[in-house]
Here is the input.
Amino acid sequence: MRGVLVSAMVVALALAGATAHAARRDVQHVTLIGDSVADAIPGDGQAVAILRQGVDLDLEVEPCRRVDQESCPNGNVRPPNVVQLAKSMGSRLGPNVVVSVGYNDFEDQYAQNIENALDAFKAAGVKHVWWLTLRAAHQPYISMNDNIEAAAKNHPELSVIDWNVYSRSHPDWFQADGLHLLGPGAEAMAGLIHKTLVDAGVALTPVHMTTTALPAARRGRPYTARLAAAAGLAPYRWSLLARAPHGIHVEADGRIIGTPLAKPGAYVLTVRVKDAASSIDVRRLTLRIKP
Here is the structure.
């Protein structure tokens, strides 16, 4: 009997692993290449969570990175520039690359450096590149943004994410230099990139709960209801962020079951749903318990 149980557990674990692996295959790979400005994203858990929703994310972000010139030193290390990174990673870059690099680059060489980076991406099999404009806190960045826009007109695989315009009215997102990001800025940049990827059909639309109300329950009588969600990547996993009324339980598959033993009244359930691509939605639902 013990051998049968062990075999059943092995099969169940194998099926769960296969399901998770299949789910990841449905999610597109995205590589973000950045310098010290985008480096605020991996340092902010909320920014990473925003950007990771609905994609298989690879963060290749290091201070002092340049596009195709020798990177400036970060301590005793010079990170690989964008072209070097593309050549070393090759197909591991995946089909989608987002670039936020340029604050350490030279104005008079930036246009050609962009061309060289696009050539390197093409050789690595990248299908689509999104390039963030630079926040124009200093004069050279204005003409460098023109270089990004001009490159996009000549390369159908290149799209522009206009971080400069998006961030223009938000000095509170930045450190004193007007370039490097505080937490809200990192989350804003992550949100802008993620929205762009969703609009392009690369990132899955995040999961959202479609249940807006719960049927009433009666104290001391069996209760059942089912939560529902849409979008994202199934399977969904449900949980409560606070304790339910005595006798009520939320199952991982979205069922609300039990026999309510709490006194009659209105109880707020803070329900969370998480999909297989790590997107999350939270909603407060009211459960009314009648006598």
